[in-house]
Hints:
Elements: H1 5-8, E1 28-40, E2 48-56, E3 62-67, H2 72-75, E4 84-88, E5 91-94, E6 106-109, E7 115-118
Parallel strand pairs: 3-6
Antiparallel strand pairs: 1-2, 1-4, 2-3, 4-7, 5-6
Protein name: Replication protein A 70 kDa DNA-binding subunit B/D first OB fold domain-containing protein
Domain Replication protein A 70 kDa DNA-binding subunit B/D first OB fold: 15-115
Amino acid sequence: MAVNESLAGSNEEIDRVSAIKATKLGWNLVVGVVRLYELPNQWISKDATSIKMVLQDQNGDRIHCSIGRTHVGMFKSLFRENEIYAMRNFIVQNNSKPPRTTAHKFKLSFYVKTEAAVLRNSKIPFAPFNFFPYYDIEPMPGHVDQFLI
C-alpha cells in the first residue's frame, strides 16, 4: 500500500535512523528525502528500473533506500526531494556494495507491505548538505598532494 493517510496521524513510536538494524521489518520513520534519483530502463526511456533515495531523520542521520522495479509504479508519483514523509515496513539489508551513498551500515528496500505518506505540515531540521572544512578532507589514495600549499 503506497499511501496510507492514517500513517501520518499514527501514534506509534518513531524510530531513529541510527537505530536501524536487520532484526525487524516494522520500522516507523519520519524522514526527509535528501536525494532522489531514478535508474532508467535502457529500452523504454520513460520507465524506471528502480528509484534510489537518501533519507534523513530529525537527528541528521542518513540511510540509503531503494525501490525496486516491481514497486516503482506504487511509489513513483509520491516521492519528491526536500519533502517529509512518514514510512514504515522495510526490508533491511547490509550496505556494503558500492556505490555507498551513506555511511550507515544498512540500507532500506521497499516491498509490498511498505507504507509511506507525505507529511505536509511537519517540520524537521533538514540539511541536504554536510559541509566540511577544506583541510579536514583527506586526499584520495594514490593522489599526490603537490598542488596543496
